[in-house]
Amino acid sequence: MESLSQKQARKIALAAQGFLDPRHTTPTMRTFNRTLERTGVLQVDSVNVLQRAHYMPLFSRMGAYDTTLLTRAAQKRPRRLVEYWAHVQALMPVELWPVMQHRMASYRAQRGKWWQAVDDDLTERLLVEIAARGPSTARDLDDGAPRDKKHWGWNWSEAKKALDFLYMAGDLAVAGRNSQFEVIYDVPERVIPAHVLARPIPTQAEAELELVRRAALSHGVATVRCLADYYRMKNEAVKPAVDLLVEEGELLPVRIEGWNRPAYLHRDARRPRKVEARAFLSPFDPVVWLRERTEKLFDFHYRIEIYTPADKRVHGYYVLPFLLRDEIVARVDLKADRKEGRLVVKSAWAEDGAPDDTAEELSAELRELAAWLDLSDITVEPRGDLAPYLRP
């Protein structure tokens, strides 16, 4: 069995995620498609203190790009992407719609993600109304319905709960989002291309095999736990698929320095001698989704502190790891002050052993990020050991 050093595994993982691909002055739809092939999915999140989560991994890999590329792929014909619970809420390739049917069936059986108490008559009425009226938000449909005041994190009307159930069960699809980031629902026949809807539905075992194969390609090298997390599967469902892929020679068992679990290398994974990346990683970037994997690959302990009370935060509210070459060398708390046209560095911290050019490279990447976000100024607040050395 082959053994890989931590550094080799790290470079393989970064190559699989697209960090070997060159940045382009003007990324095209071809560049976009290639980048999406690497990440597989783009997590969607409502936090907009810097930029929406699904836009950031593309910038990290492609550089400054026209965000309408993503809008076209997710909302225009021919549709390339559709939202579903693929990692968590995520944009996934539209061809995965049949592959997710077994997941939709499981959510139908358990009555959705969270609520489990959705009114059948309401769901039927909403389905009929959307089929007749076309794309609609919950606000379009709830007609002032009472909202749930008991749940700590949500204020959802009964219509919104019912719509979310129908979406999770595959009876509705996400047609897009409006300027307030509200989900626009529609029937799948008007969202998913006809040729995709016409495809045969794979068995659950076939679907799980396909998802594990895609996760393995996006990871390059991974444990069963890593593979399971990518599409939020159960370990017991992933292991039979891994065994089959090993038997077929698509996955190669390997040992990785410092990892105490068996790992698997995809046979097509690139093994670069060096990685010359420079990128901010969103808290929702696939490279840092599974914190245990991040620690094993980068010796980087990372926790998002959005839900931590302000006086107990260590590094800040919206902290992005800074990837330089093949290492995470710093972490930066960033905010886009759109009213003032400024990118605000709330704090900047160097990791132990950060190279001498960390501040210089971080400053350059801040300038690229600000330009992409159409922010004309950068201010650095005096918090963190790296902050005094930044020259935006």
Beta-strand percentage? 15-25%
Helix content: 25-40%
Radius of gyration: 22 Å
Structural class: alpha+beta
Figure out the total of helices: 14
Distance between the termini: 48 Å
Low-confidence stretches: 144-154
| Total count of strands | 14
Average predicted confidence as pLDDT: 94
How are the strands ordered across the major sheet?
Answer: 10-11-12-13-14
Listing every helix as H and every strand as E from the N terminus to the C terminus, the arrangement reads: EHHEHHEEHHHHEEHHEHHEEEHEEEHE
- Assembly annotation: single chain
- Overall geometry: globular
Sketch the major β-sheet: 5 strands, mixed
Describe this structure in words.
- The protein is an alpha+beta fold and 392 residues long.
- The protein is 35% helix and 18% strand.
- It has 14 helices and 14 strands.
- The strands form four sheets. It has a five-stranded mixed beta sheet with strand order 10-11-12-13-14.
- A hairpin with a 5-residue loop joins β5 and β6.
- The protein is globular.
- Mean pLDDT is 94; it is low at 144-154.
